[in-house]
Amino acid sequence: MKNKKILIADDDLNIIASLKYMLSEENFDILAMTTPEAVLENLKRESVDLVLIDMNFQQDTTSGSEGLQLVEAIQQFDESLPIIVMTGWATIDIAVDAMRAGAKDFIQKPWNNERMLSAINTQLKLVSIDKKLNRLNQENKLLRSQSFPESTGIIAQSLAMKTLLSSLEELAQSDMSILLTGDNGTGKSMLAAYVHQRSSRADNSFVPVNMGAIPESLFESEMFGHLKGAFTDAKENRVGRFEMAEQGTLFLDELANIPMAQQAKLLRVLEDQKFEVVGSSKSLNADVRIISATNCDLAKAISEQQFRQDLFYRLNTIQLRVPSLRERIEDIEPLANHFLQSFSGKYNIVAPELSLEAIDKLQQYTWPGNIRELSHLMEKLLFTCKKTTIGGRDLLLENIHHSASELDEDSDDKLANNSSLSLDEIEKLSLINRLKHHRGNATETAKSLGLSRSGFYRRMSKYGLD
């Protein structure tokens, strides 16, 4: 745990020496200044956790006016920074004025060590609680705005998944960066959460971010946060994803969709382990574990100068491929039953059973949408199948399989002329077709369809392909 940093300001060097000795013994890091100007100049460059200042400096030894002006200036600079004031000329009026100006506590000289330490620790705890509440509020907003699976109940009866989970169990004990590759819908986000929950960072936040869904103009604000007034629409302070994930795990999904200009900014943070909030010149520590995921061929993207090789090396400490659903046949039946029971509880509907014929058809299907497609199918069957047992025909996989087999570069017209398909099914299969044509590159696929990246991802999410 990093030591808390306290800035002391007093024009008496003996006072500074005494405070330094006492506070260093309590494992605080100390910065010492002798003038208000030095305090403000230092706060522009360095982050501190608390300010302890005298109310009277050399120009004025009794009224406390210099101290009050300094408190107000610090408040304008950073209103969340706790300030404790001290003076040898203590009066009720000075104490009240200091608290009104923004000070959090008032200490009279000569001080009592226990009282001083109690005041400092109390303010540091209050700031920590406020930061956690603010972070949790913003995390809750983030989680409400996106659908994100939990990592509980991972089903792994197939050898491929058992091998992968065994590797992830071992890697969870380290802090190394992990790159998960594989098709869309294979559960990469769930596996990232699985690693976090088994790591030493499990008590802190797991923060997922879909890199393809962040507008380029808002990249720094989303990732690093911003201060109120930093730009036109900055109505309030915003906590960025790196700060949310402090001492936890940051999951970068759809990694290949980060624009080149923003890749350099991300690389700098990962190399320096520091970042600046937009609107601030102070550096904050980035103590986060990075797990990233992509369905893109990053080697190809690097050769085409669409992805930075140095960023790839930074994120690719170890790379693991998540198998597609068609590569884990043994997991299809238990996954299907899991989804049926899960949706049964959600909607309070008795779940039908899968017949042997239905299981056989599920295991023969190619599952281009992988686990998400299976989940959506089971949810739909809960409402469309009115029998106690789901038969092979109830799955309606014949038409889908037939259409999927025709997915080539000229298949759009065939899909449109297939009278057995709904408009949604045509759109979904067209998306799959175009993604295959562009080898999973979401940016190129969106361009070819005339869609913005956000519009493309909304459609992907609609059909469980995101």
UniProtKB/TrEMBL annotation:
Where is each Sigma-54 factor interaction domain found?
154-383
Q: Which SUPFAM superfamilies match?
A: CheY-like, Homeodomain-like, P-loop containing nucleoside triphosphate hydrolases
Coiled-coil ranges from the UniProt annotation: none
List residues, modification 4-aspartylphosphate: 54
Q: Show the InterPro entries listed in the entry.
A: AAA+_ATPase, AAA_lid_NorR, CheY-like_superfamily, Homeodomain-like_sf, HTH_Fis, P-loop_NTPase, Sig_transdc_resp-reg_receiver, Sigma_54_int
Q: Where is the Response regulatory domain?
A: 5-124
Q: Kindly state a single biological-process term from the GO annotations of this entry.
A: phosphorelay signal transduction system
A single GO molecular function term of this UniProt record: sequence-specific DNA binding
What are the UniProt keywords, alphabetically?
Answer: ATP-binding, Nucleotide-binding, Phosphoprotein, Transcription, Transcription regulation
- Name this protein carries in UniProt: Sigma-54-dependent Fis family transcriptional regulator
